[in-house]
């Protein structure tokens, strides 16, 4: 572990791979290579050694936080004479499109569910709170999917406030990447899990009222912990292009896929198209709306060009 660079004030303690891995020495992995294959997203290169080095220590740290927060909740409930038994511990996972948030979120879900105390861990992605394509089109926002204005932020806030207040069944809408739209009538229920992982590129954003003023409640008010998955934009852009090429051979071949028309592109055309989408949508969104939220995260996973995590930054202030 090292302190921040001399002369500058950093709120983070910085861990290289070896010092971070040592924190979970002696713990065994509750998953095998086949389980890992099942949960890793397309294009996310990850192996069991990476899980042991990066994600196992993180899951152990998170379990400490969960246990401490339960003790605090119980003490406060005692003091207040409150009967709400417990409320979910909420972990936010943020980062760019194509950085590997979903693999991180699913790994945390699997590892935390296997920790002693057998936590029930639910996972929600914020894409369910995107406005339906018809509404985006009406507002001229179809080319801004993933930007703050493309979400129903109020519904997302309401959802999380309900989860965090210990409500029995709370429902999140569902998004489908194949149809590129919200699935009408489909919902995902969250029923007082021990832990909720909330994954999405917008989770650390502050939001804004229609008159431009700051809201009096933020999504992050409901977080107990937050993780930002970070990498150099040139690497993320390359991962995006590689995934687009792979999707062209798989998901885009499906006639029902919104991007089916890209299924017939040559390698070169697909490469150009992916770069164009990056330049028009995902790159500007990363620079303007996502990367500026990194410093709000409790922990930052900094990835190298090969997807492996190079450094872990943990807030100490
Ligand atoms: N057009 C698409 N068709 C099918 N799956 C997709 C498409 N775009 C993204 N995905 C999948 O959706 C998930 C979320 O992707 P994304 O929002 O880029 O976040 P991340 O790569 O950080 O997990 C990933 O599992 C990815 O493989
Ligand atoms: C659906 C997404 C906005 C991500 O949603 P999230 O769950 O992070 O809120 C993103 O994966 C996406 O599809 N962006 C649109 C631009 C593109 O197709 O690359």
From TrEMBL:
InterPro entries: P-loop_NTPase, PanK, PRK/URK. ATP binds at residues 95-102. It comes from the Bacteria. Its main location: cytoplasm. This is Pantothenate kinase. It is an enzyme of class 2 (transferase). NCBIfam families: panK_bact. Pathway: Cofactor biosynthesis; coenzyme A biosynthesis; CoA from (R)-pantothenate: step 1/5. It is found in: Cytoplasm. The keyword Cytoplasm applies. One of its GO terms (cellular component) is cytoplasm. One of its GO terms (biological process) is coenzyme A biosynthetic process. It catalyses: (R)-pantothenate + ATP = (R)-4'-phosphopantothenate + ADP + H(+). It comes from Blastococcus saxobsidens (strain DD2). The keyword Glycoprotein does not apply.
């Amino acid at each position: 572990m090292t302190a921040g660079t001399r002369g500058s004030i950093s709120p983070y303690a910085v861990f290289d791979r070896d010092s971070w891995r040592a924190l979970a020495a002696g713990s065994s992995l509750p998953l095998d290579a086949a389980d890992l294959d099942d949960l890793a997203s397309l294009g996310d290169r990850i192996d069991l050694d990476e899980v042991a080095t990066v994600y196992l220590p993180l899951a152990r740290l998170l379990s400490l936080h969960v246990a401490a927060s339960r003790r605090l909740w119980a003490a406060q409930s005692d003091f207040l004479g409150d009967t709400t038994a417990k409320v979910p511990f909420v972990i936010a996972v943020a980062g760019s499109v194509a950085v590997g948030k979903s693999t991180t979120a699913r790994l945390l879900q699997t590892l935390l569910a296997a920790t002693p105390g057998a936590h029930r861990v639910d996972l929600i992605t914020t894409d369910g709170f995107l406005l339906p394509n018809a509404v985006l089109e009406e507002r001229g926002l179809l080319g801004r999917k993933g930007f703050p204005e493309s979400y129903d932020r109020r519904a997302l806030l309401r959802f999380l406030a309900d989860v965090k207040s210990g409500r029995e069944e709370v429902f999140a809408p569902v998004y489908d990447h194949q149809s590129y739209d919200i699935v009408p009538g489909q919902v995902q229920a969250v029923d007082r899990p021990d832990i909720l992982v909330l994954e999405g590129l917008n989770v650390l954003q502050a939001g804004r009222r229609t008159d431009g003023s700051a809201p009096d409640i933020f999504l992050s008010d409901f977080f107990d912990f937050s993780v930002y998955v970070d990498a150099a934009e040139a690497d993320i852009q390359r991962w995006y292009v590689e995934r687009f090429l792979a999707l062209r051979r798989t998901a885009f071949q499906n006639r029902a896929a919104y991007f089916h028309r890209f299924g017939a592109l040559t390698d070169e055309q697909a490469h150009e198209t992916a770069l164009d989408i990056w330049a028009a949508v995902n790159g500007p969104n990363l620079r303007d709306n996502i990367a500026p939220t990194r410093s709000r995260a409790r922990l930052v996973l900094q990835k190298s060009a090969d997807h492996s995590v190079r450094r872990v930054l943990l807030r100490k202030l």
